[in-house]
Amino acid sequence: MAAMRAVNQTVGRLAKLAANTNIAAAANDMWMIGKPVLRQAGGLALRELGPPGPGALSSVKADVSKMLKSAQGLKFLNVTVEQAVNKSVLAVEVACWFYIGEMLGRGSIIGYNV
């Protein structure tokens, strides 16, 4: 909620600047308004999009063994209908985005250029 409020305030300030006739001053003001937002986005991007650290890699073995025990015990069959539908819709969405990316990558909807 606080993030939406900050975005609304920033948009309001930028709208006021758009009415300003001095382009250089407006550009400087926009940079000053956007600098904290860019700094926050950059920090989040470094943390979320960076490679996993040593702490994350150490938990992989435990996670894989937990997943294998769950599969051997057939725990994935004990889900509600709502959970099954949600996971199925998510799988279909991921597949659709994959195929859309394939089409964009090859530049054609029909087949590969051989």
Summarize the structure.
The protein is mainly α. It is 77% helix and 0% strand.
Structural notes for this entry:
By secondary structure, the chain is mainly alpha-helical. Helix content is 77%, strand content 0%. It has five helices and no strands. The model has no long low-confidence stretch (mean pLDDT 81).
For the structure shown, list the relevant keywords.
mainly alpha; single chain; 114 residues
Global Rg: 24 Å
Based on secondary structure, the structural category is: mainly alpha
Shape: elongated
| Helical proportion, percent range | over 70%
> Average pLDDT, to the nearest integer?
81
How far apart, in Å, are the first and last alpha carbons?
Answer: 51 Å
Question: How do the strands and helices of this protein lay out in sequence?
Answer:
Blueprint: H1 2-18, H2 23-49, H3 54-58, H4 60-72, H5 81-106
Helix pairs in contact: 1-2
